[in-house]
């Protein structure tokens, strides 16, 4: 786990977050507010680091010495000094539980569009964390991901993340080719008083991932090119594993697959943490024939995925348009269930 920064990370863009360190100076007395202010980082090294996705002080503060040394082509001592300076500038330290509680109270959440589902999620989908939706086909994973692209653009008082006219952006990594802007338009019609559908469509950045490498590059590109400058608040990866699963078949390739997947998940986690984003990943299920009691299905991906998501949600079908969501693995929420409806206008409450 990376250390937590003292300042409240729940509000504001990356740009604003960097401003919170403006009172900290480096040895030459210059204020450290971006990576170029760190000792030992010249313009060439800076562009190498930015190229590799390390554009913020947070990203430098949490990188390993070895990784930074290999990217920047620098010696261990220089790298150590750079990381230490970034940590100092960010005032990385412990917090009291009271401070953590206060910070968590201010944590932004995105409404799902269903009050029952929001209650299940403790108020909505959390920012700064990864939520995994898993389940069989047609259980509503993609629909819920679409719905959050819409609801996150609602004003804060309506359960979204829009602060005044500052609309958040969504990055949608689509590995199955199932993103449909038409669904966004239909879902948005429910909030026509609060949302301008054209603006919403402009704010969703869609990337079609044709294979696992392409998928990895898209997330890295978001981290490098969009997070530092755009107000990205939601990342969707639909689905996380399918390419990896299809490309790496057979026992001999398992280790490579898990290693690549691990790297990919690491980037996703870094995005959630550094950009304070809400991250939704979807996942398929595999049957567990050896399980005789309960539901004989489990999400694919093994331990690596299990440890990546802070909250795991299992979706399954019920009668007609009804679906059931179950919180499976949360550090905070009890294992409980809620029923919601999957309709033309999206995720709704059912009677
Ligand atoms: N226009 C619509 N009107 C009403 N219901 C719709 C509409 N579009 C989709 N749905 C509902 O959403 C379901 C598909 O859900 P979704 O695409 O989220 O499945 P999924 O869990 O992502 O499945 P997969 O694992 O195949 O990706 C449909 O079966 C239908 O019930
Ligand atoms: Mg889907």
Q: Could you state the CATH homologous superfamily of the largest domain?
A: P-loop containing nucleotide triphosphate hydrolases
Biggest sheet descriptor? 9 strands, mixed
Overall tally of structural domains = 2
Number of helices: 14
Proportion of residues in β-strands: 15-25%
Average predicted confidence as pLDDT: 86
The coarse overall form would be globular
How helical, in percent, are the residues? 25-40%
CATH architectural type of the largest domain: 3-Layer(aba) Sandwich
Assign the structural class, choosing from mainly alpha, mainly beta, alpha/beta, alpha+beta, or little secondary structure. Answer: alpha/beta
Task: Provide the spatial order of strands within the biggest beta sheet.
Answer: 5-4-6-7-3-10-11-12-13
In total, the number of strands is 13
Instruction: Write the CATH fold name of the largest domain.
Output: Rossmann fold
Detail the poorly predicted runs: 1-23
Bound molecules: adenosine-5'-triphosphate, magnesium ion
**Spatial extent as radius of gyration:** 21 Å
- First and last CA, distance: 42 Å
Instruction: List the secondary-structure elements in sequence, H or E.
Output: HHHHHHEHEEHEHHEHEHHEEEHEEEE
CATH class of the largest domain: Alpha Beta
């Amino acid at each position: 786990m990376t250390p937590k920064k003292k300042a409240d990370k729940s509000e504001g863009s990356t740009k604003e977050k960097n401003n919170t360190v403006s009172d900290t100076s480096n040895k030459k007395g210059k204020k450290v507010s971006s990576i170029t202010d760190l000792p030992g980082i010249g313009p060439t090294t800076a562009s190498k680091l930015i190229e590799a996705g390390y554009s913020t002080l947070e990203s430098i503060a949490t990188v390993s010495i070895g990784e930074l040394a290999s990217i920047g082509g620098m010696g261990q001592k220089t790298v150590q000094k750079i990381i230490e300076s970034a940590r100092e500038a960010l005032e990385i330290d412990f917090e009291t539980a009271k401070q953590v509680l206060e910070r968590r109270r201010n944590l932004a959440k995105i409404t799902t569009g269903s009050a029952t589902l929001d209650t299940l999620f403790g108020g909505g989908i959390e920012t700064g964390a990864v939520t995994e939706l898993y389940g069989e086909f047609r259980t509503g994973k993609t629909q819920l991901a679409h719905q959050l692209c819409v609801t996150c653009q609602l004003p804060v008082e309506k359960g979204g993340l829009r602060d005044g006219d500052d609309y958040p952006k969504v990055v949608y990594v689509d590995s199955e080719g199932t993103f449909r802007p038409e669904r966004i338009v239909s879902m948005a019609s429910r909030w026509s008083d609060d949302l301008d559908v054209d603006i919403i469509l402009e704010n969703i950045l869609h990337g079609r991932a044709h294979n696992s490498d392409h998928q990895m590059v898209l997330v890295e590109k978001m981290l490098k090119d969009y997070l530092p400058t755009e107000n990205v608040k939601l990342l969707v990866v639909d689905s996380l594993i399918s390419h990896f699963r299809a490309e790496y078949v057979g026992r001999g390739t398992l280790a490579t697959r898990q290693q690549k997947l691990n790297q990919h998940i690491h980037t996703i986690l870094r995005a959630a943490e550094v950009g304070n984003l809400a991250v939704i990943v979807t996942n398929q299920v595999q049957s567990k024939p050896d399980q005789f009691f309960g539901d004989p299905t489990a999400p694919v991906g093994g331990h690596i995925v299990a440890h990546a998501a802070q909250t795991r949600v299992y979706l399954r079908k019920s009668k007609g348009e009804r679906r059931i969501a179950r919180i499976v693995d949360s550090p905070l929420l009890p294992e409980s269930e809620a029923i919601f409806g999957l309709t033309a206008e999206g995720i709704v409450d059912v009677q």
